């Protein structure tokens, strides 16, 4: 609508030229405000959030957390604990934000595992078991396991090269997911270079995402080298979540390895480039047994479960509400092994909780941000009240939800439910959800007493009850 069509519309008198001028003025005004009209200077990357900012982010975690269930388990008293089992992949690698085009890359993330360890340091032993792997594709490299080969700082090195392989631009970045890297004149290739510090040996999965010709090497061993043409014009895919192509290789030791991904730029295919890695997946049965053993031998167990960016993210419709993988099985087993089991749910929206009556406590953390672990520890150990309340009604299972039919039939979608969605639909259907809109517990107790009603009330007239 903006190119030749707009020029033609102005010439034909369909669009006032002054309207175009005003739009250009607004764009230039914004460009001036953010310094885009100034000579280009290298951008500085902040070392991290200030103490005040981190404190605010930490308070936001407890203020937004929703305590769904609590059978006198929370808050945990450190004085009464000698061993605590922390279970689940999300405990060590949480989702702190929803992703997509609104995603930012945190300079540092406090994981739930780190938060619990920090709170119990010198007081109780913390044992971690990841449990079965979620079975999702490898995640982009990040500050938790990679370093920039040039500066040594946590993260990766982003380089832009010309056709001859000469460096045009280089910058330290925090993530192996690069959506819009700067492209100087002559840019031909985007490269992401990182030193991976593996915590486990065995068969690793590596991946590179984007379109066009791409290569991926690990310690100069070529794992991928080929043309990967795009078959979609979906801007969310082209510019945010390009497909990741994977290959596997064995890392015989835990020594650091050099991972280099290159993507040659193709007109119209964006510049989003991703390099990802995933450690060897343990045998699910053995991993489950290890988690149950750790929970059984502990005074309390904290299980962190949640969604992945492949099951819940921007630009993606969920086909179901299950957590997926072996996560429900994991919670069932750990809760059976230890009645003082706290389940922390790391999701952005409703999920099925088939085990919610078995757990000693269920805490909804949402996507809690970079101070996730610190804020969750405040809630788990009673330094802060879980202040959130449900903004949605949660079904025990998707089949229970009154309105789930959203697919058109013969090109038509009949909104027969009208206004009756959400909690209105539950009320009309006469069904009982797992948790109602507005639900959320705290750490205090309440008692209602001295109920007073008027002695005489006329039929149909309102009256006041004092409690």
Fold blueprint:
Blueprint: H1 4-11, H2 17-33, H3 51-64, E1 66-70, E2 83-87, H4 89-92, H5 112-120, E3 125-129, E4 139-140, E5 146-147, E6 156-161, E7 167-173, E8 177-178, E9 189-196, E10 202-209, E11 212-218, E12 221-228, H6 235-239, E13 244-251, E14 257-264, E15 273-278, H7 284-296, E16 300-306, H8 327-337, E17 341-346, E18 361-364, H9 372-380, H10 423-429
Parallel strand pairs: 2-3, 2-16, 16-17, 17-18
Antiparallel strand pairs: 1-18, 4-15, 5-9, 6-7, 6-9, 8-15, 9-14, 10-13, 10-15, 11-12, 11-14
Helix pairs in contact: 3-9, 5-9, 7-8
Features:
single chain; 467 residues; alpha+beta; Rossmann fold; Jelly Rolls; 3 domains; 7-stranded antiparallel β-sheet; 6-stranded mixed β-sheet; 18 strands; globular
Structure notes:
The chain is globular and about 90 Å long. The chain has 467 residues and is α+β, with helices and mostly antiparallel strands. Helix 3 (51-64) crosses helix 9 (372-380) and helix 5 crosses helix 9. It is built from ten helices and 18 strands. The strands form three sheets. Strands 5, 6, 7, 9, 11, 12 and 14 form a seven-stranded antiparallel sheet that branches. A six-stranded mixed sheet has the order 1-18-17-16-2-3, sandwiched between helices.
CATH topology of the largest domain: Rossmann fold
Helix and strand content put the structural class at alpha+beta
**How many beta-strand elements?**
18
Oligomeric grouping of the chains = single chain
CATH architectural designation of the largest domain: 3-Layer(aba) Sandwich
Average pLDDT value? 91
CATH superfamily of the largest domain: Glycoside hydrolase family 3 C-terminal domain
Rg over CA atoms, rounded to whole Å, is: 27 Å
The tally of domains stands at 3
Q: Report how far apart the termini are.
A: 64 Å
Biggest sheet details: 7 strands, antiparallel
